[in-house]
């Protein structure tokens, strides 16, 4: 959002946030259906039922909307990571399980934005792409640290590299968006349960050895 | 390849195959670097160092080259599946391990074609897309059947759905192409080893229970 020209800037944060969400949701729908390259700001204005000029009060370019979508996805991921880290009285392996479950359900309830997030990174300018990659690194580190802690506490097989294992976990968490279609039997929750069990066993191996 | 206009049709199969591979490899490189939509048949002819007219002896449209790439990838996957099924004296879980290792190494040694394979399916015509989806279903079934057998033989936790578990395995096998860059420490083999261990534990759980 270009704050200087944001007409909702003087309004209550709640209203501004709601309007922001609506604009990004409309952009996501249009990008998803037509592909980012083919989509136009006019298409998004049509989707919102407003004039193109009104949309330009919020953004300068189509890419601003794409980047805002990336920012939103990361704000939500950050919220999940913080929540997972804040839970007391659980061990690192349980924290990994909680993360996987929460993230899979979150992604599958938001297929449109997640699909764009994984497909359109290269459409961002170099500066913005670097920001996204830095966010992803933090996300990587979060998981690698939990795996390392689990290994140190004897809760996970120490023979695998934590960085490579973290990539296996991300694979399991991310991939369902590629095949999941709502209303065809499996639910976000049932998929999250299988992914959580798979990851938990995959990381822990035969550990703890009692 | 449009057989009727293939000038190498009368030549030895080995020559024809080699030429075919060269054409698809050049197309893959161009699609990868410019994106399928932006790439032209002229770009591919330039990459091969031949005239555009010569390339039209092999294909009618740019999409023919994309589909040929999909065909090649599937022929190679089929070869891996057959090889894995042909090994004697191993149990279903060991067969899954062998499949994961072989497929990960294969994918990581062929990043260009694999990237196109996972990104450009929607560029194929409906008929061709359906063929690819049918091939993928066979691939799915191969893995789901092995997981079911492993569960029946007490080698894997029977509490998870084999279809959902198969998707977790595919995630682990496919995802490395998204982050792997040759020459940065990890090798296709070291990644394949971690993926194999992760999948094996993820599918087997605490089984066999002795």
Helices and strands in order, then pairings?
The structure is a homodimer of 210-residue chains.
Chain A: H1 13-34, H2 41-48, H3 52-55, H4 62-86, H5 92-108, H6 111-119, H7 126-152, H8 162-174, H9 176-179, H10 188-204
Plain-language structure description:
The structure is a homodimer of 210-residue chains. Chain A has helices at residues 13-34, 41-48, 52-55, 62-86, 92-108, 111-119, 126-152, 162-174, 176-179, 188-204. By secondary structure, the first copy, chain A, is mostly helical. In chain A, helix 4 packs antiparallel against helix 5 (92-108). Chain A starts with 12 loop residues before the first helix and ends in a 6-residue tail after the last helix. The model of chain A is unreliable at 1-6 (pLDDT under 50). Chain A binds chain B through residues 37, 119, 157, 159-161, 164-165, 167-168, 170-172, 174-176, 179, 186, 190-191, 194-195, 197-199, 201-206, and chain B through 37, 119, 157, 159-161, 164-165, 167-168, 170-172, 174-176, 179, 186, 190-191, 194-195, 197-199, 201-206.
């Amino acid at each position: 959002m270009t704050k200087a020209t944001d007409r909702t800037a003087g309004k209550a944060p709640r209203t501004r946030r709601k309007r922001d969400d609506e604009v990004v949701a409309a952009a996501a729908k249009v990008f998803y259906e037509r592909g980012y390259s083919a989509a136009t700001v006019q298409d998004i204005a049509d989707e919102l039922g407003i004039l193109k000029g009104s949309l330009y009060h919020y953004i300068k370019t189509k890419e601003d909307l794409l980047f805002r979508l990336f920012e939103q996805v990361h704000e939500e991921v950050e919220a999940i990571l913080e929540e997972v880290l804040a839970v007391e009285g659980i061990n690192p392996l349980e924290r990994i399980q909680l993360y996987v479950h929460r993230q899979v359900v979150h992604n599958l309830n938001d297929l449109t934005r997640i699909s764009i997030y994984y497909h359109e990174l290269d459409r961002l300018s170099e500066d913005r792409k670097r920001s996204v990659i830095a966010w992803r690194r933090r996300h990587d580190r979060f998981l690698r640290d939990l795996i390392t802690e689990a290994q140190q506490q004897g809760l996970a097989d120490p023979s695998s590299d934590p960085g490579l294992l973290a990539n296996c976990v991300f694979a399991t968490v991310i991939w369902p968006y590629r095949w999941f279609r709502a209303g065809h039997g499996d639910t976000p929750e049932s998929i999250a349960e299988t992914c959580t069990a798979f990851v938990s066993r995959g990381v822990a191996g035969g550990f703890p050895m009692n």
